[in-house]
Write a structure and sequence with these properties.
Layout: E1 6-13, E2 16-17, E3 29-33, H1 46-57, E4 60-69, E5 72-73, H2 77-95, E6 101-106, H3 118-130, E7 136-140, H4 148-153, E8 156-159, H5 168-184, E9 190-196, H6 211-225, E10 230-234, E11 247-253, H7 257-271, H8 285-292, H9 318-325, E12 332-337, H10 339-348, E13 353-358, E14 370-380, E15 383-385, E16 392-394, E17 398-403, E18 406-411
Parallel strand pairs: 1-4, 1-6, 2-5, 6-7, 7-8, 12-18
Antiparallel strand pairs: 3-4, 9-11, 10-11, 13-14, 14-17, 15-16, 17-18
Helix pairs in contact: 1-5, 2-3, 6-7
Length: 421
């Protein structure tokens, strides 16, 4: 009779920007404990994908804890101490019930005051708890940083293959299938890593259309037919300023060390000459506005330095100011994080006129408020549901303000804008 297998499941995810002046804390995290994690079933999340595979293969999920926070500034020392303690306490409690393997859902770009490698710490302590014999498999965002400390503790890894990210669940599924193999087959997994001294940005990283996507498809081919248990290319988050930040190729096999190493080196060599293409082609704001005025149809301005999905504050008003100062005459739709302006709009009510300063609410060292007199068009509690992952979204009290040719959605909380939600 086939033995009954039990897998401990834990999650701790956050991506930080070291350049965000506001630290994040324990309250940034949404915590699910034990049975609460069953709510992930059917969702486009790594946990949702892993649970689907465990259900399919008859493996009993031993649900420990899920701790997730939106992208933000570096986690405070106190916040990290509490998050780490609760995660490891849950891991130890569930491991004591007897498990055959561990699946840990991570991001890879966490950072805390006093701990630049939180994932490495969690994995080291998890290994100490469960012992050397049990397989540990993790899933990682391709914007994460696989550190030496992490690599020493794991037996397998699955890495996102899409940017923009849409393969959350399928990554969890791949991780779960790797873990299933490690628990049921006599394998001696090998993980090869080749570090590439490059940080990359720009449209060539879009996996559907860019040259980075061509390399990712080759990594996927290795997984499907090339003998690799998993393969991926992690490019890190350039705003997570930690010692091991880099681009790196990861190839894992079921024991063929030469294959893992050779394929990782090959992918790295193919990546290297393309690195110059994988740089953002930046245009000055003044030139962008001048060009936009002569273009028919919608024009999108992006400010990568204020990307909330990478941990920025989201309160930059530089594009808004630039458009207004240049006398840009076409309609403008924009968003900004400014809890004070949102509160003033809620106090005044729909249809009222308010005088507010937009921008610089969270990072006044970089941005100064832009004074506007605006009409309050709409108000909202800021609660929504992401189309991509089917999970909740909280922007806090939100207002739509109109002034001149501008329509600005004002959030109270920093959030990542993934889709139309």
């Amino acid at each position: 009779m086939k033995p009954h297998l039990r897998v401990l499941i834990a999650e701790c995810m956050q991506e930080i920007s070291s350049f965000n002046p506001l630290p994040s804390g324990y309250d940034n995290f949404y915590i699910e404990r034990g049975a609460q994690m069953r709510a992930q079933r059917g969702l486009n999340t790594a946990l949702g994908g892993a649970l689907a595979v465990f259900d399919e293969t008859g493996i009993e999920p031993v649900l420990a804890i899920g701790a997730r926070a939106g992208s933000a500034g570096r986690l405070s020392a106190g916040g990290w101490k509490r998050v780490a303690a609760e995660v490891l306490e849950a891991v130890a409690e569930q491991a004591a019930t007897g498990v055959d393997g561990v699946y840990f859902s991570l991001h890879g770009a966490m950072g805390a005051d006093g701990e630049l490698d939180p994932e490495g710490y969690l994995l080291t302590e998890t290994r100490r708890i469960v012992g050397k014999a049990l397989p540990i498999v993790i899933s990682l965002d391709l914007h994460g940083i696989m550190t030496d400390r992490m690599l020493r503790q794991i037996n397998g890894v699955a890495i996102y293959h899409t940017y923009p990210h849409v393969d959350f669940a399928s990554t969890g599924q791949r991780a779960a299938r790797i873990l299933h193999r490690l628990m049921t087959e006599q394998l001696r997994p090998v993980i090869a890593r080749v570090v590439i001294p490059a940080l990359v940005r720009g449209d060539e990283l879009i996996t559907k259309s860019g040259c980075y996507g061509e390399l990712i498809r080759e990594a996927r081919r290795l997984e499907l037919e090339g003998g690799a248990m998993s393969a991926g290319i992690m490019i890190g988050n350039p705003f997570t300023d930690v010692p091991e930040l880099c681009t790196q190729v990861i190839v894992a096999t079921t024991g063929e060390e030469a294959l893992a190493r050779n394929e990782a080196v090959r992918l790295a060599r193919e990546f290297w000459p393309l690195r110059h293409r994988m740089q953002g082609k930046l245009v000055s704001l003044e030139r962008s506005i001048a060009q936009a005025a002569s273009i028919s149809g919608p024009v999108i301005f992006t400010d990568a330095a204020d990307a909330t999905s990478s941990g920025a504050t989201g309160d930059s008003n530089l594009i808004l100011k630039g458009l207004r100062d240049a006398g840009y005459a076409r309609r403008v739709l924009a968003q900004i994080v400014d809890p004070g302006a949102a509160a003033a709009a809620h106090k005044a009510g729909v249809g009222a006129t308010v005088r507010v300063g937009l921008g610089g609410a969270l990072d006044p060292g970089r941005f100064s408020p832009m004074q506007v007199t605006a009409r309050v068009r709409l108000l909202s509690d800021g609660q929504a549901r992401l189309e991509t992952m089917k999970t909740g979204l909280d922007a806090g009290p939100t207002a739509v303000l109109e002034f001149d040719n501008f329509t600005v959605v004002v959030f109270s909380l920093t959030l990542s804008l993934f889709d139309r939600a």
